[in-house]
Amino acid sequence: MIKKIWNGRFKNVSNSKVEKFSSSLDIDKSLYSFDIRGSIAHVEMLSKQKIISISDKQKITKALNQAKKEIEKGTFNFATELEDIHMNIEHAITKKIGNFGKKIHTARSRNDQVVTDVKLYIKEIAGNLRKNLVALQKNIIKNSEKNLELIIPFYTHLQSAQPILLSHYLLAFFEMFLRDINRIDGAMYRLDENPLGSCAGAGTSFNIDRFSTTKKLNFRIPTRNSLDSVSDRDFIVDSIYCCSMIMMHLSRFCEDLIIWNSSEFGFIKIADGYTTGSSIMPQKKNPDILELIRGKCGTVYGNLINILTNLKGLPLSYNRDLQEDKFPLFSSLKIANECVDIFKDLLDSIKFDNVSIQRSLNLGFLTATDLGDYLTRKGLAFRDAHHITGKIIAYCEKNNRNLDEIKIEEFKKFSKLINKDVYKFISIDSSVSSRNSYGGTSRTNVKKMITEYKKILSKL
Ligand code: ARG
After folding, report:
1. Is 113 in the pocket of ligand 1 (CB under 6 A)?
2. pTM
3. How far from each other are the two terminal CA atoms of the chain, in whole angstroms?
4. Helices (H), 107-207
5. What beta strand segments (E) does 261-359 contain?
6. d(CA 231, CA 224)
7. 187 alpha carbon to ligand 1 midpoint, in Å?
């Protein structure tokens, strides 16, 4: 039986069922490299401040580096009864170098240690997520440039609305993911405060130098209140919220692609590698990857509610409830990272089917608004123009004809203001190119935006 680090006042503490229940090792194992980094910064500071000797520092640092190698090689002896990664590493150090090892915990508590580790972890993993998002943005720009000629309908209420450039649709997501990147940056700025040295929650009487560990660990500043440092997990909520927003945006993108991939729409073909067959229906090519991303969004939302509920009404400062913060955090970052990464490849694999898209452009009177605008330009109030256009659409529906198949004499029955020039206004192409307002779908506009987005991308 391993002697507990905290067992001074306990008589009989070994109960394997309880030990297993309270251990977080399976989950917080993945913090090992951050824990070791934090410990090295800590002992270097302790020695600089003459709280421990240089030789103790050297021995401890060497043992920490050895432990890291062992964990990476798979030869480290993890023990569940040592509760968590922090105590496993400390125990290993003490076993290697004897009692000097225990000095590692001078002027430190697991309460500030765990927050330091988790913050370092988030900085690294959220950094990967940001990189993946930038890679996705590049693919969005690439596909927007490649498909500048392609016009598609957009939908409101899933009913045909107006024609737009496919690039305009894709770039809508560029904007969303750009806000997601900014959101990560904001969250990382707030998180970037070093809690190490807050100890159990009140600080310490040792003459530590928190600015030195802050510099070593590459944090922006040390935290200013030791109690806050060990109590709050708002930075975890922030991180999961960032993941939730990314997943929400991805899930909407996926949903559109799933609809576009249906036989009824047929707008796109997804590369075989991102689809699966059915065990019974041989004709199937299902967009499983898109569906999985959409589904995993739910897991991340669940994680967000998990951590918020954990924190609600929790008395200050540290409570063991907080040990449960890691699962939702690790799970969310992993899911978001994986989904962004795979989605960016999938997006690149999509082929657009001109024939099906063209067919859909003939449905749903996509240029009805342009006819209304035409009448408004001829002097009618838009409301009246809207009413007359509505009547014309009803006439088209009754006669099973498209707007551009209506003869000028027929148009004139609805309004004398309609002349031959109307056909130019109600063509799909001119509808798109006429929407030149800032942020609109015209090709000139979209091209300008692509130039602007490329500039933004180069600075991300
Ligand atoms: N494994 C613990 C956690 O993740 C470390 C902190 C333990 N602190 C304590 N006072 N029991 O929260």
Report:
1. no
2. 0.94
3. 52
4. 110-146, 166-191
5. 268-269, 351-352
6. 13
7. 24
Active site (annotated) includes residue 157: yes
Q: In angstroms, how far is CA 283 from the centroid of its own chain?
A: 34
The DSSP string of 328-343 is HHHHHHHHHHHHHHHH
Residues 120 and 30: beta-carbon distance below 8 Å:
no
Q: Dig out the tokens for 459 from the structure.
A: 């600075």
Return the structure tokens found at 261.
């991939």
Q: Taking the alpha carbons of 380, 384, 389, 395 in that order, is the dihedral positive or negative?
A: negative
Name all domains of the chain by residue range, CATH numbers in brackets: 7-106 (1.10.275.10), 112-151+164-205+223-359 (1.20.200.10), 368-426 (1.10.40.30)
Region 166-188 average pLDDT: 98
Predicted confidence (pLDDT) per residue in 300-358, tens digit: 999 999 999 999 999 999 999 999 999 999 999 999 999 999 999 999 999 999 999 99
> 287: pLDDT confidence band, cut at 50, 70 and 90?
very high
Whole-number Å distance, alpha carbon 24 to ligand 1 midpoint, is 9
Residue 384 identity (one-letter amino acid): D
